[in-house]
Every structure is written in C-alpha cells, then in structure tokens.
Amino acid sequence: MAQDKKQVEQITDMEVDFAKWYTDVCKKAELIDYSSIKGMFIYRPYGYAIWENIQRILDGEFKKTGHENVYLPMLIPESLLQKEKDHVEGFAPECAWVTYGGVDKLEERYCIRPTSETLFCEHYANIIHSHRDLPKLYNQWTSVLRWEKTSRPFLRHREFLWQEGHTMHATAEEAQAETERMFNIYADFFKDVLAIPVVKGRKTDKEKFSGAEATYTVECMMHDRKALQGGTSHYFGDGFAKAFDITFTGRDNQLHHPFQTSWGVSTRMIAGIIMVHGDNNGLVLPPRVAPIQVVVIPVAQHKEGVIEANRAVMDRLSAAGLRVKMDDSDQSPGWKFAEYEMKGVPLRLELGPKDIEKNQCVLVRRDSGEKAFVSLDGIEDTVSRMLDEIHNGLYTKALKNLEENTYACASLEEVKTKVAAQGGFAKTMWCGDLECELKMKEEAGVSSRCIPLEQEHLGDTCAICGKPARHMVYWGVAY
Ligand SMILES: [Zn+2]
C-alpha cells in the first residue's frame, strides 16, 4: 500500500497552493507535457481525448443549427490584418511573424493567425455577391497562435486549439440573433455537458473583442473563486464588411454591406473542468466528456473465471454506448484505484469472485466516494443513471460555490474588503464610465467580468463615483 499512498501524495493540496495543485493534476493525470518552446504544450492522448469529446458534441450542435466546417490558411499577410484598425491594434502585440520563405526574405511579412476574421472577410468578399449567397454560416476547428509572455497548461498557451465560427447575414437583426443563438449554445453546453454553471452577460466596451460592437460571454467561477471566461460570441455590425468591401445585391436591387458575427471556445474549457470539479485526489471529470466513463477493475483476478466475468460486464456496457476500460494489468487493486481517481474517471466498477457468486458488483463514485453494491441485472441502466447523478451532483456543487461567493456591494471600499477576504464575484451598480472601471481594477484588483443579461436593481448610483447607475456589473479576479 505504500506505493498507492505515494501516488496520491505526489500532488499538492489545493488548499496549500492552488496553482501548484493545478499543474500537478495536469501532469499526473497525463493530460499535457511541456515542449522545448515556452508556452507550447503537447496534448497527451488522455487530454486530447477530452477535447475530442468536446469537439464531437459541439460540432453536432453547430451542424444542427446549419453551420458548415471550412479550413483557411494559417498565415495572414500584414496588409490584410491592417484593414480593420481596432482589430490590428488589439492583436498586433501578440502576433508572431513569418519573415523568411526558405532562404529569401519575404517582401511582405505574414502573421501566424491569432484569430481569422480578416481571412474570412477576404474570402467572403470573393464569394458573397447576392442576397441569395446569405447567410454564410462557417466554422473552423484549428489552432491559433498568440505570443503570450506567461503560460500555463490549458489556461494560456502560445498555440492553442479552438473553434472559430464566422458568419455573414443580410440584416443586423439576423446577425444579432445568430450572436445570441451561439452564445446560448455555449451556455447550455457548459451546463448540460461540462456540469459548469455560468453567468451569461455582455462585456463592457473595455473588455470586448477588438473590432466588435458587442461581445457576449459565459463566465464561470473556479474552485479558488477566480473567474474564467468560458466562451465568447461577438456581433460586428457591418464594420469589417465595410473595411473589406464586402457587398451584396439585395432584393431591392441595391448594394448593401452584410452583417457579421464570430464566436469561439478553446481548450481553456479543459482548464475550467479541472479547476471547477477537481479535488485533492486529482481530476474529477464530468461523465459526458470523460474519455473513460467507467473503469472495470477485476478483484482477485488470478482466480478462475474472474477476468472473463469482468470482460463480459465491460462488453455489455460498451454495447450500451458507454466508454469503458478494463484494467487487468498486474498492478495491485490499490494502485489502480489511485490511478483512476487521479484521472478523474467518474465510476469504478469492481467485480470479484464473491460478487460473481451473488450476481452483483461494486460501483464507486469518483465525485463523492459513495460505494454501492448493485445487481448485474440491468447494469447498463444502473450505470447510465449513476453517470447522470454524478453530472447533476457536480453541477449542484459548482452552483453552490458560485452562489455562495457572489455578493452585492454598495461601494468600492466594500468590494476591496470582500474580494480580499473571499474572492468570488462582487456585483455593484455602475455608471458605465471607463474611469470607474479602471479605478476598480487599480484599487480592488478586479476586472469587470460582464454585465449580466439578468439585471438586478441594487441601487440608483454607481458604487464607484456616485453618479446615476446604468448597469449592474459582476467584478472578479480572472484567469
Ligand atoms: Zn461611476
């Protein structure tokens, strides 16, 4: 048992050092490895498999709503990037450039895409001519590159994986509806698939995407009460379309500029999963994206018929569409328990000679540690139901953390005191001025997370300057 104990001890307690706990989990659960370039990570099979599940489910949602996947080049000519002023100002500091092709210096340097609005616009200018060409509902799954100064696994990579949807519409109303539709798909995905509750809102002008008219965001609270921006959906109006000279002939036979959206989520969601659900024994995965939903561990596997009985149960669960693995390696059961706890496998199924006699098995939940003896009759349904219970249990626990650490404040002083003591989300009234937003950052160390769609009336005046208030805002320390 000494070896089993050691395996668990290798991760730092989250209460002692949350950041260290986080990187320990990323490494010990075999999600990621470091490469020789700072900020560029290797997604290991187990980590990549989580992304594949996310991708498969979201891609299905995109297709159900009429979107098509495309692939655009990874290089953007500098002149193209510069066509939209706010956009280039926002991204230029993080761009990496290609300046040589073989041994020749290029006449124009190329940016490695930090995002692809400009490339999509160039393409759309070529293929959109008539109202019959609209809407264009495109998405691409790809990697992007942003030359960050600091890096952490999944949270901040120089190169990371994401999807970027880019759509064009004949009217502003249609584009606005698309922005909201995709934003709601993200919010539902967080709740129904990742078991993470979100605050749905709009970004302030300071925090919105470079070049966007409006940015919608889903904000999540991590276990350490810091905020993580989960996904964003942007409405561009016709600003980019004008800058890129994209026009179409309307039903009225006049030339018009189309209206545009973009929306994206990235492998940062995996950081959210780790930091919302994980515990001191390692990762805790929400069942709907877990690469292994049930691990089957034979007990006294040297005895006759044990492996066969275990394999039969595994086959039944697989046939029912569940993701199952049986571990009949020569490691001790204790070692296996610790290993799959570390990897956050939602359910462990143990089956030994005595269980086989009684036509039962043992199920152990990763989230709560609860142990149950259940009949092998109808094991498929029992396991499916228990996976749903785990999903709901994880969601309820995360919601409790969010609700208990979101509080109203009437003044900047109150925000300062409470944020320092408790972290979490402080909600206040706000006049809408950038000055007050900057003051909040300077003095309380928090940024505006969002202007929630569900507004509450906490008072008539801005908590910072005392002028008439326009919105209720959530503030927090963000990753
Ligand atoms: Zn103010």
TrEMBL record:
What GO MF annotations does this protein's record show?
Answer: ATP binding; catalytic activity, acting on a protein; proline-tRNA ligase activity; transferase activity
Q: Which Pfam families match?
A: HGTP_anticodon, ProRS-C_1, tRNA-synt_2b
Subcellular compartments: Cytoplasm
Which reactions are catalysed by this chain? tRNA(Pro) + L-proline + ATP = L-prolyl-tRNA(Pro) + AMP + diphosphate
Gene3D superfamilies for this protein:
Anticodon-binding domain (3.40.50.800), Bira Bifunctional Protein, Domain 2 (3.30.930.10), C-terminal domain of ProRS (3.30.110.30)
Instruction: Report the domain of life of the source organism.
Output: Bacteria
* Primary enzyme class: ligase
Q: What is its main location?
A: cytoplasm
UniProt-listed PROSITE patterns: AA_TRNA_LIGASE_II (PS50862)
Q: Which CDD domains match?
A: ProRS_anticodon_zinc, ProRS_core_arch_euk
Residues annotated as domain Aminoacyl-transfer RNA synthetases class-II family profile = 17-286
Q: Name one GO cellular component term.
A: aminoacyl-tRNA synthetase multienzyme complex
> Which SMART domains is this protein grouped with?
ProRS-C_1
Q: Which family does it belong to?
A: Belongs to the class-II aminoacyl-tRNA synthetase family. ProS type 3 subfamily.
Q: What assembly does the database describe for this protein?
A: Homodimer.
Name of the protein in question: Proline--tRNA ligase
